[in-house]
Amino acid sequence: EPKCKVIVEFAGQQVGTEDTLKAAIKAYKAAHRGIEVKTVELYIKPEEHAAYYVVNGDAAPEYRIEL
To answer: 42: which of 6, 34, 54, 59 lies 20 to 30 Å off by Cα?
Structure first.
C-alpha cells in the first residue's frame, strides 16, 4: 500500500491528521488507564480550531483536542 499523509489546511494553519490522532489517543489513555483502545474516530472541526474523538464507541464533549 502507498504511504499516505492527510493535512487539513484552514485559516493559515496546517494540521496533520496523524499527529492529531496520536494526541487524541494519548489524551484518552491518560484519562482512562488500563482501557485498551480498539477503535478511534476523529472529527476535525476547523471552525472551532478543535478535533473531537470517539474511542471504542465512547464519546463525550470533553474528548476534544485543541488545534
So the answer is: 34
Q: How many residues does the chain have?
A: 67
Q: Which residues contact 10 (CB under 8 A, 6 or more apart)?
A: 46, 47
Rounded to whole angstroms, how far apart are CA atoms 10 and 44? 11
Give the pLDDT band of residue 1 (cuts 50, 70, 90): confident
Question: From CA 48, how far away is CA 50, in angstroms rounded?
Answer: 5
Q: Which three cell numbers stand for residue 2?
A: 502507498
- The answer to whether the beta carbons of residues 23 and 40 sit under 8 Å apart is no
Q: What is the pTM of this model?
A: 0.86
Show the beta-strand stretches assigned E in 1-67: 7-10, 13-16, 40-45, 50-55, 64-66
